[in-house]
Task: structure prediction
Amino acid sequence: MDISLNGHEARALGVLIEKAFTTPDQYPLSLNAITNGCNQKSNRDPEVDFSEAEVRIALQGLRMKGLAGQSVPAGSRVERWRHNASETLSLGEREVAVLAELLLRGSQTAGELRSRARRMRDLPDLAALEQALQALRDRGYAITATGGRAPRTSQLLCKQMDPGAGDTASVEPAPGHPIAPAGAAAPPTAAPGGDPAPLADRVETLERQVRELTRSMTQLREELGA
Result:
């Protein structure tokens, strides 16, 4: 499945998944709770300072991509949001928990991932983690690079978080699968003068992001009656 998230959407989705596991009594989450979760200082890298308006737009984007939905509980005027990652991405709970950590902290080693994701779902050993990572790689949602002292895994839903994740050099492919995940774009080639990506590719990426933002803003204005 070819799903592309911007940085705001990736952080909001990570928060929805995390809080669904760690604070189920407060889930689904209000806009304020999601904003606070995006901006919290612990278990986040990088730290951000999103406004509620920015988070609302991100949630609308996730809803359009089938990754989040909203509801208004009986007796409440406050709309609340839940994630649909398991259903839309066809992932189990362990895989979703590991994906959330990648969305909230960026690329990590296996040891870091297991230690951090265990607060959401049990991962008894590294073999259990590897099984979850293999499922993410098989579906094109993550990639593991073997360069450096320890292999590091990056998520592929939001390329702006891990801009080098699409580079297939020193990448560990899934058994029986090509290195490039299905639906993933080929890594950018260097342009003359040392530019890391052709100008046309950058323009295309920016245009796509502007179109997504415009659709989200239009939908938000309609809902607010503006």
